[in-house]
Design goal:
There is one protein chain. The chain is an all-alpha fold. The protein has helices at about 20-40, 50-55, 55-85, 85-105, 110-125, 125-140, 140-170, 175-195, 210-235, 240-260, 270, 275-300, 315-320, 325-345, 345-365, 370-400, 405-430, 445-465, 485-500; strands spanning about 10-15, 15, 435, 440-445. The strands form 2 sheets. Strands 1-2 form a two-stranded antiparallel ribbon. It has a two-stranded antiparallel sheet with strand order 3-4. Helix 3 (about 55-85) runs antiparallel to helix 9 (about 210-235). The chain starts with 11 loop residues before the first strand and ends with a helix.
Length: about 500
């Protein structure tokens, strides 16, 4: 019988005692914010890209699409690689890729180089699930929930910060500056990780499932390309239909293969457990509901006053509308952790979904005042903060410790898929409900209200899914535990390593 893996105590880096775990939590959260900022930093620049690079608007849109694709592909893959070969090692490699992508964008104005750089930046989205996995492995049990809540919330915090920061840069500096700055911050991130984040001793042994990774990547690329480009290509065009058919054919073939290999890219048997499956469905719906807030807020306040509802706000002001939501996400992550500790992450997620839906109800009825718009957007962001904090706790409750990276990577992927479907839905609604205002075509107020109703519906659907999640047992101290305690998790990790090594 193999010996149990000891609980983490005083971690070491290069043979020396690591700094206090508090520093590691702060550094990993900072890495998560930086990576999330990179996903949105180019959005205010998109209308100017054709003039700056000579590219077509369709080519410019790939600066956003390609990050979605590479993020979706590499997040679960790198999560699995981290489980097998070292989470800190893969985290540093992801940050290096981010720096490389930033430098490519900083040194060139050629659209092809910019798209390549943005593809590399998107691949770094795996930093968030890797950070969550490191925190689970290294922190004492009583600190895991609060640290993971903060780490998970960085995806939303960074998105809220990225838009106003990018708008300020675009209006006041050369646009390449933001990529130089992002590259420099990425280097600082790498140095901080090497200084105070220890390597996890917990590994899942076995051979990396390259065929499974390729199958998953192919399925995701076909699906997300069809969803994100369908509006431009035409939903009934040969390209869109062919990609959707390819995704439908590839998915079951990939799934059948994954069920047959000893160390699959995605353990579908674990993923099919109600605790994991329903959490991932909820993540997709929450991702959809959250992203609508980011997509329409800035655009809505920038609409000209001739529309009857637009405020004619500047690019910077429109970006700043999302900043209070980012602040609330920071403030509420420990609140979510306390709710999860006392009542369970299922309750946290249910509360979050209800808050998001309420936020969209506020937005539906208050679309003419800047402060009311900010208030509604902040309510939505507050619910998202609680949801993003609860989701990884639910995932960790349902998977063995040796599969944390891959499982959280898959959950992050589901959020990204939800965002992709949201982007396509919002684009379709705003493009089809229009009128002439001030000599130009603009979305009607009803178009935005329809988006709010759809997003509220997604949040309520997430609430319904959450209600069917398995409950958690209560400990003798009155706190809510997951389906496994720490000792059982470590036993699972030992068993996984032993089986895959053939011992």
């Amino acid at each position: 019988m193999p010996a149990d893996i000891p609980a983490p105590t005083a971690a070491t880096i290069n043979g020396e005692q690591a700094p206090h775990p508090r520093f590691a939590v702060g550094v990993l959260a900072f890495c998560g914010v930086v990576v999330a900022v990179m996903q949105t930093i180019v959005v205010p620049l998109l209308p100017h890209i054709p003039a700056l690079t000579g590219a077509s608007p369709a080519a410019a849109s790939w600066l956003v699409t390609v990050t979605l694709l590479t993020g979706a592909v590499f997040t679960p893959v790198l999560g699995r690689v981290g489980d097998m070969y070292g989470k800190r090692r893969v985290l540093v490699a992801s940050l290096m890729v981010l720096v490389l992508g930033s430098v490519l964008c900083a040194v060139s104005s050629h659209i092809g180089v910019l798209i390549a750089g943005r593809a590399l930046q998107g691949a770094a989205l795996a930093v968030a699930p890797l950070g969550i996995s490191i925190l689970r492995d290294e922190l004492p049990p009583e600190r895991v929930l609060s640290a993971v809540a903060l780490m998970s919330s960085t995806l939303g915090i960074g998105a809220a910060i990225g838009l106003p920061v990018a708008a300020l840069v675009v209006e006041n500096f050369d646009w390449h500056t933001m990529f130089w700055v992002s590259g420099a911050i990425g280097v600082v991130d790498i140095l901080l990780v090497l200084w105070c984040v220890p390597e996890s001793p917990i590994r899942t042994r076995g051979r990396f499932d390259a065929v499974g990774a390729l199958g998953l990547s192919g399925t995701l690329v076909c699906l997300l390309l069809a969803v994100t480009q369908g509006a431009d290509w035409g939903w009934t065009s040969a390209r869109t239909v062919s990609l959707l058919v390819a995704a439908v054919v590839l998915a079951p073939v990939w799934g059948a293969y994954e069920l047959r290999v000893a160390t699959p890219m995605v353990d579908l048997r674990v993923s099919a457990r109600p605790a994991v499956l329903l959490t991932n469905v909820a993540a997709l719906l929450i991702g959809f509901a959250f992203y609508a807030n980011s997509l329409v807020t800035a655009q809505m306040v920038q609409e000209p006053k001739a529309t009857g509802y637009g405020l004619g706000a500047s690019l910077v002001v429109s970006g700043l509308c999302l900043l209070p939501g980012g602040v609330m996400m920071v403030a509420l992550s420990p609140v979510s952790a306390r709710i999860s500790a006392k009542y369970g992450p299922k309750v946290s997620l249910a509360v979050a979904a209800g808050v998001i839906a309420a936020g969209y109800v506020v937005r539906y009825f208050t679309s003419h005042s800047l402060w009311a718009i900010i208030a509604g957007a902040t309510v939505v962001a507050s619910g998202t903060a609680i949801a993003y904090s609860a989701l990884p706790a639910l995932v960790m409750r349902g998977v063995p410790v040796g599969e944390t990276g891959a499982a959280n990577g898959l959950n992050t992927l589901m959020r990204s898929v939800g965002q992709a479907f949201c982007s396509a839905t919002v684009a379709a609604v705003l493009a089809n409900l229009t009128f002439l205002a001030g000599g130009r075509t603009a979305p009607t107020l009803q178009a935005y209200q329809v988006v709010f109703l759809i997003a509220a519906g997604a949040a309520l659907a997430a609430l319904l899914v959450t209600l069917f999640l398995p409950g958690a047992r209560r400990s003798a101290t009155g706190t809510v535990e997951g389906s496994r305690d720490a000792a059982r998790d470590r036993e699972d990790g030992v068993r996984a390593m032993s089986i895959r090594e053939g011992t």
